[in-house]
């Protein structure tokens, strides 16, 4: 993934530095407002990463020791880690083969009386079925947190991914379409949650540092609860504001490149590329391909041949339950997760990718197919 950063972002960052206000301040506030409007949320709370966004979402829900939170193993390990940060137990559920996402059935299969929340991931930018999972979560009486780390620019049921979410967590890591270098956001329609999230990211203070410094009179702050230092800087937000203006163009470009990959791969038996779900559109933050047995070559052999050809592809999305950090858990069978993580790879897809680059990638895959 090559982030699209140019002179406008460099100028915006320089302007923030020259302003003398580089910590969380007016640019962060503006970025929060504009990002929340973009994704159809009432409030945005900028934080230092999507991982911290997930952590704060669970804190706001008062999830803690003795509680279980259902998560996909088929996700970056931060999704499960956030559950442990609050002392709760992550419970791994399997995913759908086509989307790589949780479904009502896979969540219900591992749900227990201790289940307090579900973290649904819009994996690789592919939206999960928000209508179905939100309805089920409400019926079960459990909270649904949306891990939208990869989903800026994706849609579900004609609305931006994350619109209508009780709590959604976003990432602005360089691998994402919209980047601030590092950084994240929590979006919510609940003003009370938004107010608490803002306190939690800033040591639990009842008034932000920016508000304190802007006041003409001395402000004696108080600290309402034990909290965290999860703030975003104005330098990052300045970059993010420029990036917001690029998002629609980047999504359109990625979708065009993905469509071309689909056309090129259609004649190669045994390769199944990720596609839009019937209820939405993906931003193609990641373009993964599942290798079926009839292809005749293993995923690792494909990665090795692509590397020889100078193509930087990556293994498919990880399975957290197979990592040493989660060896103490004993999840039930996760056959789809294990197949996806074993038999899929992520092909190059970024703004600098050319048609010649795509032809070279697919040429290797076609040659390996014999």
Automatic annotation (TrEMBL):
Species lineage? Bacteria, Bacillati, Actinomycetota, Actinomycetes, Micromonosporales
User: What name has this protein been given in UniProt?
Assistant: Perosamine synthetase
Q: Which residues carry this modification: N6-(pyridoxal phosphate)lysine?
A: 176
Pfam families membership = DegT_DnrJ_EryC1
The record's Gene Ontology biological-process terms are: polysaccharide biosynthetic process
Family classification: Belongs to the DegT/DnrJ/EryC1 family.
Q: Name one GO molecular function term.
A: transaminase activity
The record's keywords, sorted A to Z, are: Pyridoxal phosphate
Show the active-site residues.
176 (proton acceptor)
| Domain of life, source organism | Bacteria
Endpoints of the signal sequence = none
UniProt organism field: Micromonospora phaseoli
Q: Which cofactor does it need?
A: pyridoxal 5'-phosphate
